[in-house]
Amino acid sequence: MAETLTIAAGDKAARYAGLLPQLASLLEHEADLIAGMANVASALASTFGWHWVGFYRVAGAELVLGPFAGPLACTRIPFGRGVCGTAWAQNATLRVDDVDAFPGHIACSSLSRSEIVVPLRNAAGAVIAVLDVDASELAAFDEIDQHYLEQLAQLFANKE
Q: How many CB atoms lie within 10 A of CB 1?
């Protein structure tokens, strides 16, 4: 993938199946973590049209905003707070059908209604960042999203 993105036709699984090899190729040849995150956020936003797609990087006891596509976002999120901080603390993917029902949700945008957050781990399994995706519809994310976004997160394992 070099400055072009081919978006597959079809259902969500088909679009992921077409996108993942392109992102794998892109990340394989990009040593800079931030550059890779920037292109991944853009590719996901272009392919799926979600409200917000981006990364938060682990920096001490908080997550710091990284590359993203979408409106302005929260800059720092404490460990264990909100969906992103909780996914980091649990070292697990979180799918939230209704962010307003999530205890301690941090509302960076009132238009976000559902969210999925996937930890990115280094080769030792420690969380180095999270991929955060917000949709303006309730219950926008399912097992298909989780499956493919977790596969995508694994592509970052040796990028720290």
A: 18
> What does the alpha-carbon distance between residue 129 and residue 136 come to, in Å, rounded to a whole number?
23
Q: Please, what sign has the CA dihedral across residues 155, 25, 7, 4? A: positive
Q: The tokens of 99 are what?
A: 């962010």
Decide if 19 is inside a domain: yes
Q: What's the sign of the alpha-carbon dihedral 24, 1, 127, 97?
A: negative
Determine the distance from the C-alpha atom of residue 18 to the mean position of all C-alpha atoms in its chain, rounded to a whole number: 18
Q: Please tell me the pTM assigned to this model.
A: 0.93
Domains held by the chain: number: 1
Amino acid letter for position 23: L
pLDDT tops 60 at residue 7: yes
Task: Report yes or no on 4 lying in a domain.
Answer: no
CATH number at residue 17: 3.30.450.40
Domain of residue 26 covers 12-154
Greatest CA span in the chain, whole angstroms?
42
Model pLDDT for residues 78-128, shown as the tens digit of each residue: 999 999 999 999 999 999 999 989 887 777 777 788 999 999 999 889 999
User: CA nearest 132: which of 41, 7, 48?
Assistant: 41
In a domain, 7, yes or no: no
DSSP one-letter code for 126: -
Position 160 in a domain: no
